[in-house]
Amino acid sequence: MRGRTKMVMAMLMGRLEAYRRTKLYDLLAAAPIIVFFAYSVAQMLPSLAQRLALLMMFVRTDPSVLPPSLVFRSVAELATLLFFALSIVLYAVRCVPQRSAAGFYPRFAAVVGTFSSLGFVLLPARELSSALYQVSLLLLIAGTALAIWALLVLGRSISLLPQARRLVTTGPYALVRHPLYLGEMVAVAGIALQHFSAWALLLLALGWALQLQRMKYEERVLSQSFPEYEDYMARTAA
Questions:
Q1: pTM as predicted
Q2: Residue 237 gets which letter from DSSP?
């Protein structure tokens, strides 16, 4: 009886492991983040449409009095919207992973490191000088632009958790090993500046620390899956 039970359990575990390697399972695993990005896009559209309408009104009437902050804010929101929309598509069509990091903490570091920036919503916005506010927007634009470039090159290899899908070493990945995370960290620094406080700095430090942990686990998985990754690490800065 026990032997038969073990056989049934082994068969079930084998089928489950085979199911985990299917595209359907991967799509279901990506569903929460796809829904989150879709919700974010829906929330952004009304305010962005109003801001763009205001921008066009300035352009049509007197462009000389167009506030630079309005231009930068519009560009930042457009870039963020593009990042979300591109993420939705890539998470839906991405490749099935060859290998994933084992254990709870690598997953925790990846998820919390990515979404810790949501904590800034709970912090009050600070009254900044015009110059500082524009600096924060430029950081947001630069970081998001780098992240979009990285996404376009990464393509179907995108992943939230430390996983190996395909090895990408071109484009921004020829300059640094983690351009997507670098772009996100720069963009979050711009957001933190708009909420400048001890809590904002603590939240920023937490997000950065977890992102660095996420990089470490991801590199471990990639090294196990692609022998050539060691050479790539040796010639490319983190």
A1: 0.89
A2: B
